[in-house]
Design a protein that fits this description.
- Helices cover 38% and strands 12% of the residues.
- By secondary structure, the chain is an alpha+beta fold.
- Strands 1-3-4-5-2 form a 5-stranded antiparallel β-sheet.
- It is globular and about 40 Å long.
Length: 152
């Protein structure tokens, strides 16, 4: 789907949106996801946790909240993405991540490959302050309750 001129201008002005459209590497195997989490935990200061569809956070998460989020989202992914591979987490760098897209196992659509309307990630971890993503969906009730349990 072609982006409008106003969307392109917004991306040019906003680093978060520009990074969102940047290059990402897929985390294909569960051990790769474990390694990614460890890299993020090792540099736990300065991460924003954004549940797409909720208002973007105004400040980075405290390290203990980041730890809680990683623990909970990892458990959710492994429980609800009943596959022997991961393939639903993408990072700008697997060695030194600064932006991570985490797709909701219950709203995958066409995550990789081509789609006129690819799904947005369920959650984003970023060192850049998030802004509302264009066309953000309304969170389903079960995800909203899960999110509020963590950050309510």
């Amino acid at each position: 789907m072609a982006r409008s001129r106003s969307q392109q201008e917004a991306e040019a002005l906003d680093p978060f949106l520009a990074a969102f459209r940047g290059s990402f590497y897929g985390v294909l195997r569960w051990p790769q996801l474990d390694a990614l989490w460890e890299r993020i935990r090792a540099e736990s200061e300065g991460w924003y946790i954004y549940a797409v569809g909720e208002p973007p956070p105004a400040a980075p998460a405290a390290p203990d909240k980041l730890e809680e989020f990683i623990t909970e989202v990892d458990a959710l992914l492994r429980r609800e993405h009943d596959e022997d591979y991961c393939g639903i987490v993408y990072a700008d760098s697997l060695e030194a991540p600064t932006y991570v897209k985490i797709f909701d196992p219950n709203n995958l659509g066409v995550v990789c490959g081509f789609s006129e309307n690819p799904p947005l990630p369920g959650w984003i971890l970023s060192r850049l302050k998030p802004v509302d993503l264009p066309n953000s969906p309304i969170l389903p009730g079960n995800r909203k309750r899960w999110w509020q349990k963590l950050f309510g």
